[in-house]
Amino acid sequence: MTNSTPRSTARTLLHTRWIECRGYLRDDGLYDIEGRLQDLTNAATDLPFHPVPPSGHIHDMHLVMTIDSDLLIRHIEARMPTGASPFCPDVVPAYRNLTGLRIGPGFIKAVKAVVGGVCGCTHMTELLERMAKTAMQTLFSTYRRQASERAARGEQRRPAVRPWVIGTCHAYREEGEAVRLLWPEGLPDATPH
User: Fold this and answer.
1) Is 107 helix (H, G, I), strand (E, B) or coil?
2) Phi, psi (5° rounding) for residue 24?
3) I need a labelling partner for 22 at 20 to 30 A (CA). Which of 61, 136, 184, 193 fits?
């Protein structure tokens, strides 16, 4: 990829956004998906409601979402140690209303119906989208482990991905080679294995 604008030899870091998501298998068979979003300013800055020191947080937000193997949110907990204003943390309880939603097609639209706009926080809602993808990858790791265990026992190997990935990207397009190789006899139903 060519860049039409040459890079300057000297640069000054102004802002860093860190988004970290982790997926855990719990002892009770459920999964915890943890997300954290941080916005850090390199130089001291004055926000409308408070000053931020160099390398200080403008935003520091945490979500922990407990899901089951069907990607149903069983519990969600939000924390906001730092927001851009003292009023930002007031929205934290609203995220409990996401309990009962299922991660899958239409998830972000459903999230925005509950905590979109003035009912939520732009940054926490953005974090939820990343956490949903982390939840899927977390379950994929479980499916891959189970497939490896079945193969070690001499059982027939089933694809580690579920059919709902079909149509989500170029590699998993319905007429693509990956789908043909994973499901040579046709597409199975979308029930979990």
Assistant:
1) helix
2) -125, 140
3) 193
Token reading at 91: 């929205």
Question: Can you give the pTM of this predicted structure?
Answer: 0.78
Q: Are 33 and 22 in contact (CB under 8 A)?
A: yes
39 pLDDT above the threshold of 80: yes
Rounded distance between C-alpha atoms, residue 169 and residue 141, angstroms: 19
39 token code pair: 């916005």
Taking the C-alpha atoms of residue 185 and residue 163, their distance in angstroms, rounded to an integer, is 13
Closest CA to 84 of 55, 50, 114: 50
**Side-chain half-sphere of 181: how many Cα atoms within 13 Å?**
7
Interval 134-189: pLDDT, tens: 999 999 888 777 777 777 888 776 655 556 677 778 988 888 888 888 777 665 55
Tokens 């943390």 belong to residue: 89
- Residue 164 near residue 105 (C-beta atoms within 8 A): yes
